[in-house]
Amino acid sequence: MILYNDDVNFYSDERVSMATQLFSTDELINRALKAALYSRTRMPYVDRATVMSILEVFSSESDADAAITLTIIHILRQNSRNEINDAAANSLVKTLLEIKNKGGGQKGELARKFLGYYRWLFEYLFYSRKRVDLPPRAIEELTFSDFVEKYAIGRR
To answer: How many of the other CB atoms lie within 10 Å of CB of 9?
Structure first.
């Protein structure tokens, strides 16, 4: 029961602020980079059709919770079929679960952004003539800025 509209707005603003702090654009891009690197550097390699299917499943549902849950189920299914390797699946599922549980009213938008960044970075790695092969520890420590400096523009 809502007693005071100001209380609801304060609560909502507080939750939005928390979600924004947890999932800044930089943080979402860094997480998407890790998932994309795992997708292209660990066997079995994830193919473009699999990435597109993840986005299609997410877009098929208008309710944010349901969209995220169905996307996680789809990723797990694709992992069991060896369409997505364990490291990439773990990275994607971990981030999506965290967004679902801590994203507040922004969870749908945050998940959409994360998956969009994942697609763009995956496609860069997929189509790039440059081969990036990193051990898991290096992937976990790598930020997007470091990646651009060391691998995208640094090795021309």
So the answer is: 10
